[in-house]
Amino acid sequence: MPNTALLANGGNMVNGMTSDVSITTHGSDFYWAICAAMTFATIVFIGLSFTKPRPHRAFHYITAAVTLTAAIAYFTMASGLGWTPIDIEFQRSNPRVHGVSREIFYVRYIDWVITTPLLLLDLLLTAGLPWPTILFTLFIDEVMIITGLVGALVKSSYKWGYFVFGCVALFGVAWNVTWTARKHAAALGTDVHKVFIQCGVLTIFLWFLYPIAWGLSEGGNVIAPDSEAVFYGILDFLAKPCFGALLLWGHRNIDPARLGLLIRDYDDPVGNERPLGGSHEKHGAAADGIDGTHNGTTATTTGTDTV
Predict the structure, then answer these.
(1) Mean per-residue pLDDT for 293-301?
(2) Please, what sign has the CA dihedral across residues 286, 287, 293, 296?
(3) Smallest Cα–Cα separation from 25: which of 1, 51, 6?
(4) Residues 169-193: what's their mean pLDDT?
(5) How far is CA 207 from the centre of its chain?
(6) pLDDT of 43-73, one tens digit each?
(7) In b/e form, how buried is each residue of 60-69, taking b as 16+ CB within 10 angstroms?
(8) CB neighbour list of residue 168: distance below 8 Å, 6 or more residues apart
(9) Whole-structure pTM value
């Protein structure tokens, strides 16, 4: 069955404006394939969450939210929607990128502004990082994505100023992941450290390839939008479904309570929160001590009175 999505949604015209450099049905087909992969991954991750009690599903839900958001974004791009034409700074003679304007998929950045903080949250919660550091890292990540979007929408050479801001933010994120979070993960045990290293190395390696894709497509107009679709699509597939599968597999035997994650279910008594991955009985005993001490205080019981 032929792909008619682009024709059904106006082809290379949006809001009365046209784009000279746009995706073809080849790019649309690839976007549909990635959309299907993201959708399938979402179903799998949500299905796997039902194998765990509700208080144990945090990483499943976060990871499923990543792929679900990406599936919607790729549905939009495959349909030839979610873009705007921007005048090209570097006009080239190659017929595949020749023209005055190029389509810029702003929906891609809407995807990233939601999903990249969630991916980082998966990583930084795995490392047991303090919340102030997590929040600041997520802020830096948002700066990275938004400056990328603004740069893509600027037609002059000033776009490269935003590109530099984004790259600096990327280095800030990479520092917190590879240095600060890595040390925290190592302190939590070899199993936590292993899954963090596997997922962290994959994420940072892939994220450093995104500025290259940006420079070749939205920035420099070197590769055609169909090639842009393949470049970004492969990166997103590795950074989201593959990352999610690796993360959830690594977490299968890790008690989230070791990561400092505590949550209560609806049938738990108020004030008797249990660790996200363990029983309150087990951790309560550990907290109170084998000898009956609690926070350095020994309780002595005489009859029914406790002093």
Answers:
(1) 40
(2) positive
(3) 6
(4) 95
(5) 10
(6) 999 999 999 888 789 999 999 999 999 999 9
(7) bebbbbbbbb
(8) none
(9) 0.83
